[in-house]
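Hey, resending since the last one bounced:
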Amino acid sequence: MRKIGILLLASMASSCAPVPPNPEVVAREQAQFAQLTEGKIAGAPLSCLPSWRSNDMVVIDDNTIAFRNGPGKVYISHMQGGCLGIDHGRNALVTRTTGPNLCRGDIAQVLDTAARVTIGSCVFGDFVPYIRPRS
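The structure tokens again:
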């Protein structure tokens, strides 16, 4: 009986072990980040986006959101706590802002658009501008 308890405990512990990331997915996310920031220089982090439109938002991975601002500028925010599931096709990110701008500390909810339920939430971090230098 004791062996069954030990096997059950070992099975439960191994089921909680983190799943290693898929190397192909990681490579795709890194390539997308590199493509968005190519030829641009990182600036000082900002606490709020000066302006933004939701259709300019690009989900890089569960922890990283980019906001395009024309061809020469992109803002990158690393989510605090991560937004599990935002990079899946049927989920949407719904933001709650405390003012007219999207700012660090604003809460975003991950919405399963098929089931119409909230499946998680996260918080925006700083927004790092990547700007193409003028020639």
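Residues 3 and 9 are 10 Å apart (CA to CA).

Sorry for the duplicate.
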